C-alpha cells in the first residue's frame, strides 16, 4: 500500500528513473541478496517502506515472524544503503512504537520513555531498532538517513485479509460482507473470498465455493446479515491518515529536509482521532449496511489512544489534506471496483 502510493506520487512529479523489485524478485530478509541489489543498482535515494504488518490478531499470533522479518529488513537495507553510498534514505516507522501510556498527543521525544503495548511489542521493537540504526549510522558514518513515524494508514492496495488486516480495512470488508449477506448475494460473497483468500481454514477446512461453509465461517467471525461483532469495547481512540497523504509527506521531506533538520524522527498524521465505535459507524454508513454493530469486550482494545503530535512536520510546511470521510469513501470505491472487475 505505502510503496505503491509513493510510486504514484513520484511518477506524478515526473520522476522516471525508479528502481524497484517485487517481493518474489528480492527477499529483503536475506543479506546477500540485498547487498547484491545495492551493489548492482547503486540507488541514490531510498524509501524504506517494506515491512511485515498486521492488526492485533496477526501481531499476537505471529510474534517471532514480526520481530525477525522486520529487524532483518531494516538491518539489511539500512546498512547496505550506507555501504553503497546512498545519498538519502527515508525509513518508515509506526505509531505503535510509542509507549502504551505515552502522554497524548505523542511527541517524537516520547520514544522509549515507557513500556510498549504487549499485543504489538515484537513489531514495535523491530521498528524502534530501525530508527536507531538510522540515527547511529548518521552519527558514526555521516549518512543522511531520516525516519518518519506515520499514524494508522489506509487506502488503495491495503490488506483486506480478515486475519491479518488493520482495523479500518477489516471494518470495510466486514460491513461489505454483512451487506451482501443481508441482501442474499451469496455468489458475490464467494467471489469476494476468491479475490481475498482468508488466512484461516474455512469452517472445518471447507470449500470456498460452499455457500453454507462460508456463511458458517462468517458467523464465527461475527459477520451476519443482521449484525457485525467487533473486537474490544469500541472505546479506544485511533488516528487515521490516507496513504496518498503519507506519500506526499515522504516526498516532501525527502526533497526538503536532512537528518540534521528533522532530528531522530518526524511524526506524520492528521492530529485528529476518534473512537473505534465512531469509526465503525462511519464505515457502516459509507458501505450501506443497515444492521447493528456489536462489541466483544472480552477481546483486547490495544493501546487506549495513539494520537500523534504533528507540530514538527506542520512547522516544516506540510499538512494532511484528505478528510477521513473522503478517504474512507475513496478506499471503499477502490475495494468495490476491485471486486466488480473480478466479477466480470
Could you walk me through the main structural features you see in this protein, from its secondary elements to its overall organization?
The protein has 344 residues and is of the alpha/beta class. The chain has a domain at 2-158 and 240-271 and 306-322: Rossmann fold (3-Layer(aba) Sandwich), CATH 3.40.50.720. It is 47% helix and 12% strand. The strands form four sheets. A four-stranded parallel β-sheet has the order 1-2-3-8, sandwiched between helices. The protein has a three-stranded mixed β-sheet with strand order 9-6-11. Strands 4-7 form a two-stranded parallel sheet. α5 links the parallel β2 and β3 (145-150). The protein is globular and about 60 Å long. 42% of the residues are buried. Residues 201-206 have low confidence and may be disordered.
List keywords for this structure.
344 residues, Rossmann fold, four-stranded parallel beta sheet, three-stranded mixed beta sheet
CATH homology superfamily name of one domain: NAD(P)-binding Rossmann-like Domain
Q: What's the number of helices? A: 13
Biggest sheet character: 4 strands, parallel
The helix/strand series, from N terminus to C terminus, equals HHEHHEHEEHHHEEEHHEEHEEHH
What is the averaged pLDDT score?
92
Going by helix content, strand content and strand pairing, the class is alpha/beta
Report the helical percentage: 40-55%
Q: What is the correct CATH architecture of one domain?
A: 3-Layer(aba) Sandwich
Amino acid at each position: 500500500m505505502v510503496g505503491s502510493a509513493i510510486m504514484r506520487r513520484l511518477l506524478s512529479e515526473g520522476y522516471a528513473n525508479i528502481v524497484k523489485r517485487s517481493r518474489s524478485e528480492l527477499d529483503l530478509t536475506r543479506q546477500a541478496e540485498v547487498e547484491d541489489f545495492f551493489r548492482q543498482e547503486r540507488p541514490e535515494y531510498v524509501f524504506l517502506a517494506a515491512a511485515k504488518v498486521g492488526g492485533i490478531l496477526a501481531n499476537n499470533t505471529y510474534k517471532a515472524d514480526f520481530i525477525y522479518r522486520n529487524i532483518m529488513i531494516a538491518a539489511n537495507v539500512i546498512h547496505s544503503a550506507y555501504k553503497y553510498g546512498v545519498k538519502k534514505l527515508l525509513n518508515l516507522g509506526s505509531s505503535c512504537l510509542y509507549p502504551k501510556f505515552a502522554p497524548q498527543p505523542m511527541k517524537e521525544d516520547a520514544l522509549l520513555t515507557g513500556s510498549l503495548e504487549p499485543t504489538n511489542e515484537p513489531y514495535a521493537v523491530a521498528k524502534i531498532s530501525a530508527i536507531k540504526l538510522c540515527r547511529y549510522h548518521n552519527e558514526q558514518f555521516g549518512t543522511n538517513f531520516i525516519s518518519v513515524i506515520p499514524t494508522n494508514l489506509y487506502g488503495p492496495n491495503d490488506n483486506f485479509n480478515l486475519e491479518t488486516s488493520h482495523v479500518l480495512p477489516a471494518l470495510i470488508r466486514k460491513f461489505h460482507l454483512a451487506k451482501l449477506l443481508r441482501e442474499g448475494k451469496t455468489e458475490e460473497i464467494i467471489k469476494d473470498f476468491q479475490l481475498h483468500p482468508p488466512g484461516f481454514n474455512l469452517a472445518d477446512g471447507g470449500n470456498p465455493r460452499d455457500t453454507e461453509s462460508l456463511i458458517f465461517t462468517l458467523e464465527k467471525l461475527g459477520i451476519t446479515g443482521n449484525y457485525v461483532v467487533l473486537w474490544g469495547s469500541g472505546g479506544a481512540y485511533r488516528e487515521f491518515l490516507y496513504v496518498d497523504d503519507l506519500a506526499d509527506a515522504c516526498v516532501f521531506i525527502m526533497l526538503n529536509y536532512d537528518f540534521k533538520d528533522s532530528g531522530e524522527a518526524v511524526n506524520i498524521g492528521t492530529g485528529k482521532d476518534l473512537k473505534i465505535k465512531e469509526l465503525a459507524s462511519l464505515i457502516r454508513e459509507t458501505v450501506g449496511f443497515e444492521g447493528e454493530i456489536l462489541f466483544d469486550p472480552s477481546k483486547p482494545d490495544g493501546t487506549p489512544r495513539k494520537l500523534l503530535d504533528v507540530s514538527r512536520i506542520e512547522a516544516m510546511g506540510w499538512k494532511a489534506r484528505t478528510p477521513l470521510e473522503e478517504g474512507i469513501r475513496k478506499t471503499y470505491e477502490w475495494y468495490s471496483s476491485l471486486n466488480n472487475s473480478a466479477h466480470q
